[in-house]
Each structure stands twice: as structure tokens, then as C-alpha cells.
Automatic annotation (TrEMBL):
Record flagged with keyword Transcription: yes
This protein's record includes keyword Plastid: no
Residue intervals passing through the bilayer: none
Pfam families: HTH_1 (PF00126), LysR_substrate (PF03466)
Name this polypeptide is given: LysR substrate-binding domain-containing protein
Amino acid sequence: MRRLPPLPALRAFEAAARHGSFKHAADELAVTATAISHQVRALEEYLDMPLFERRVRQVVLTDAGAALYPVLRDGFDAFAAALQHLAPAPARRSVTISATGAFMGRWLAPRVARFRAQHPDIDLDLRATDVAVDLQHDGVDVAIRYGRGPYPGLVAEPLFGDRFAPVASPALGMLVPSDLTILPLIEFTWRRPHPDNPTWQAWCAAAGVPWQAPRAQLRFSDEDHAIQAALAGQGVALLSLALVADDLMAGRLRQPFGPTVAGHTYHLVRSAAHTARPEVDAALAWLRIEATNT
């Protein structure tokens, strides 16, 4: 059978030795300095030897105390580690956001680092899809929809509007609108036909430039692929300035002339039956700030 002194006395001694102070040990253990002194004195009587040399506002370990302290320190550290290992890990909070593939890759993903820096305890589950998700049954907290609305049965708020203009790689040397007649034009197919969808014909009408069929044309079924083709210097694309803003700023693409034509509006959309959660509110606040900066 182990013969050990009372545990409170051992804890008081270990804390006092670690801090070099009865007062600081008392603050840690939420007792008085007098109580720490009594516990240490009881341990010294139990061992029949002094463990501290008492000085003004300071206590210094004796040789016996210096030999006992690391044993107790390592023991208490081992206790704490074992208890922490046994305790179930707290469940992390998570927010699921849905958006189109182009928006996810070109606008949302590059901004995630700022959210993680502000909220390291919140995970983001980002789901890229060009199909409108069912926010009530698909496990999605927030969707970013692109269009004119309305969105019946959903809570929607405008995030930011969009503008389109001709952009191209600097390698193509595009300088004036007449260059559009000699360079390949890049288009992508809109998922949902709408008379207000930006098209080359609509841009030419806004620019006062007669529309004529280009010498060469590339058509993609995916907007992000059209952006990649423009970056690769394969032609001039009529693209969302919001989605290529980073490329324009970095000089990977150029917009040498206008005008711009209006696109649709990005909306933050949630289920009308959603339950308020702090982590979702944090994600919404982050998206609003990023949209304002856009």
C-alpha cells in the first residue's frame, strides 16, 4: 500500500515551488496565501524536513524541496495529459456554403484565409455546384445565387452586382475595339437563358460597335473554362469583372477599353426555416465585408 501525504499539501507545494511564491500559488488554486503556507507546513512536518527557505516576498527551495519538486511537477503534468486524453474532444462548429463552380474558385476560395484567421474555431464546408441546392434538405446553411430573383420561400439579400467587359491576356496586344474583328472571341453558355444575360451582341450595342461574326470563336459550357482560356491567351472573353478582379490587378488579364455592361446580382440566400447559429452569422458577416471590398 502506498503511504502518501495528503494530496492538497502536495498540490500546494508544487504550485508554490513553480511560482516561487505562496501568493501566486494561492491565486492559481483559488485559496489564501495563509492556506498555502499551512499546507506546505503540514507537508514539511509529514516529511520532517524543510522544503522552502522563507524570505521576504519570496520562497526558495531547499535541497530537499528541489529534489521533490520535479517529481511532483511531472506527475501532475502526466495526470493532466491523461485526463485531457480521456475527455471527449469538443465538437467543432461548421458552416456549409454552396455556390457555382466559377464563383467558388475565382471569388470565394481566395478569400477563405481571412475567415480562418478571424474564426479558427469554425470550419467551412464549401460545395461548388451549378445546380440550385435545396437549402432545407441538402444540409446547406448559405447559398450564393446569381440572378435577378425572386427566391420564393427563401431569405435573400443582395451581395453585389456584376459588370462585364472584354478582357484578354496582355500577350494578345488588344488595344482598341477594332481588334475584336481580328482576334478570336471566347464565349460560355449561360446555364439559364435570360434576355439580360451579357453577350457579345449586347456589348457591341452598348459600345456603338456594329456586331459582326468573328473570324474565330471559342465556346465553353463552363464560365471558369472561358476564364482559363482567356488567361492562356486563346482569345478575348466577355467576362465578369468581379470574377477576374484578382487577375486584372495582377496584370494577368487586361481590360483596355469599355464600356461595361450589367450582369446579374449575387445574392446571399438562406432557408426561411433556418435556425440562428453564431457560426452562420459569422460567415454571413464575413461575406458581406468581402462583398463591400469587391
